[in-house]
Amino acid sequence: MARKKHIHVNAFNMNCVGHIHHGLWTHPRDQSTQHGTLQYWTHIAQVLERGLFDGIFIADVIGYYDVYQGGVDLTLREAIQLPVNNPWLLVSAMAAVTQHIGFGVTATVGAHNPYVFARDVTTLDQLTQGRIGWNIVTGYVDSGARGLGQEGLAAHDSRYDRADDFLELSYKLWEGSWEDGAVIADKARRIHALPGKVHPVVHEGPFYRANAIHMSAPSPQRTPVLFQAGTSARGLRFAGQHAEGVFIGARTPEAAREASRQLRQAAVDAGRQPDDIKIYVGVAVVPGRTAAEAQEKYAEYQAHASAEGGLAHFAASTGVDFARYGLEEPIAFGQSNAIQSAAAAAQQQGWTTRRKLLEQFTLGSRYTTIVGDAAQVADELERWVDVGEIDGFNLTRLVVPETWEDFATLVVPELQNRGRYRTSYAGGTLRQQLFGAGDRLPQRHPAARWRR
C-alpha cells in the first residue's frame, strides 16, 4: 500500500495587529497587540516547534489599504495590517530559541536592491543554519509605490518582469560568486578565502545592473527556499520557473486540485519536476475537545470579528472601493492592477454585490474555516490534501497564540495517529526538511545554471 502523504503546516502570521481575520485582535485572549515585543515572537516560535510545524510564514505589505472609503480611517481603527513592522528583523530572535522550524519571510521586489538584499538573506541563512525561505512578492497597493517615490504601481505583468531580473542577479550572487571550498580559514598560512575561487558577478538586465563580488560567503542553502503566491497567468509562469512553495486560495478541494495541476504543469513546462513545488492552501482551524466545544469557540470568535474590516482588506486586493456600492448594487470589477486572481475569484464565486461579499467575511476573512473536534478537523484536512492534490496548509491565526496551541495540542496527535504528520524533525536545512533531497536547489532549477 502506498505511503500516505505527510501534511505540511506553516503558521501564517504578519508583524502587525490585524492580519487575515480582522477584528479578532479585540478578543480578550488575543495577544497580537504585543507584536512589537520579542517575547511575543519567541513564544510563538517555541509553540510551533513543540507542534512540529514546518515553520512560520510571515506575510508583509509595503504600503497600506486606502481603497475602501477612499482613505485609511477604517484601516487605522480596525488595525487592518496597519501599523505593520519589518518581518525580517524577527528571525534571529526566533531562531535563537528553536532548532528546527523554518522561516518563510516576505519581501517585495521593488522595495529592495538585489545586491544588498542577497547579503541580508545569506546572513540570516548562516545565522539560522539554513532555515530561511523568501516569499517573493511584486507589490499590489499604490500606496506603497507612492511611498517609494513612484506615481503608482507598475503594470501587473511588468512587475513580474522586474522580479525575473531581480532573481537572476540574486542567483548569480548566491550560486556563482563564491565557489565551494573558497573559504579555508587557514590561520597558519594566513589565508581565509582563496582569491581564485571568488568571482565578480556581471549583470546587465532590463531593471538591474551589477559588477561585484557577493559580499557574504555561501550559506548552507545558498539560495533560500523560494515561495510565491501569484496565480494569475503571469504569476503561474513565474511560479513554474522559480517557486519551491506556492500559496493558493481555493474555496473547495476541487478548485485546489485544478490550481495544483496548473502549477505543476507550469513547473514541467519550465523543465522541472511536478513535485519540485509544494502547494499550500490558507485555512483557519477552530478545534475543540468535542464538536460542541469547537462550535462554541467559533461563535465566540465570530462575535469579535469585523466583516467590514475583511471587506476593506479585500478592496485593496481587488482595487475596487466596495463602499461606493449599495448593498444590492452590482459591482463592476473590471481589469485590476492589484491581485488579478482576487477579482477573478470574486466573480467566479458570484460575489457580485456588497451584501454577498460581506456574507463571506463573518470571521473577518474569506478564508476556508474548519470547525470540529480533532477527528473532524483531521478528516477535512486529509480531504483537502488528497482531493485537492496539495501538500499542506498555511494555518492562519484567529486568536494568538491560542490558534496554534490548540492545533498542536488537539489536531497534531490525531494526524500523527493516522500517519499524516511527522512525529519528529529529521533535521537539516529548511529545503532538506521539505524535500529530503539536500540543502541546495536541484540542478534542474534555473538558479543552477550560474554555479561554477
UniProtKB/TrEMBL annotation:
<feature type="binding site">
    <location>
        <position position="232"/>
    </location>
    <ligand>
        <name>FMN</name>
    </ligand>
</feature>
<keyword id="KW-0560">Oxidoreductase</keyword>
<dbReference type="InterPro" id="IPR036661">
    <property type="entry name" value="Luciferase-like_sf"/>
</dbReference>
<dbReference type="InterPro" id="IPR016215">
    <property type="entry name" value="NTA_MOA"/>
</dbReference>
<protein>
    <submittedName>
        <fullName>FMN-dependent oxidoreductase, nitrilotriacetate monooxygenase family</fullName>
    </submittedName>
</protein>
<dbReference type="GO" id="GO:0016705">
    <property type="term" value="F:oxidoreductase activity, acting on paired donors, with incorporation or reduction of molecular oxygen"/>
</dbReference>
<dbReference type="InterPro" id="IPR011251">
    <property type="entry name" value="Luciferase-like_dom"/>
</dbReference>
<feature type="binding site">
    <location>
        <position position="160"/>
    </location>
    <ligand>
        <name>FMN</name>
    </ligand>
</feature>
<dbReference type="Pfam" id="PF00296">
    <property type="entry name" value="Bac_luciferase"/>
</dbReference>
<dbReference type="GO" id="GO:0004497">
    <property type="term" value="F:monooxygenase activity"/>
</dbReference>
<feature type="binding site">
    <location>
        <position position="156"/>
    </location>
    <ligand>
        <name>FMN</name>
    </ligand>
</feature>
<feature type="binding site">
    <location>
        <position position="60"/>
    </location>
    <ligand>
        <name>FMN</name>
    </ligand>
</feature>
<feature type="binding site">
    <location>
        <position position="106"/>
    </location>
    <ligand>
        <name>FMN</name>
    </ligand>
</feature>
<keyword id="KW-0288">FMN</keyword>
<feature type="domain" description="Luciferase-like">
    <location>
        <begin position="28"/>
        <end position="388"/>
    </location>
</feature>
<keyword id="KW-0285">Flavoprotein</keyword>
<dbReference type="InterPro" id="IPR051260">
    <property type="entry name" value="Diverse_substr_monoxygenases"/>
</dbReference>
<keyword id="KW-0503">Monooxygenase</keyword>
<comment type="similarity">
    <text>Belongs to the NtaA/SnaA/DszA monooxygenase family.</text>
</comment>
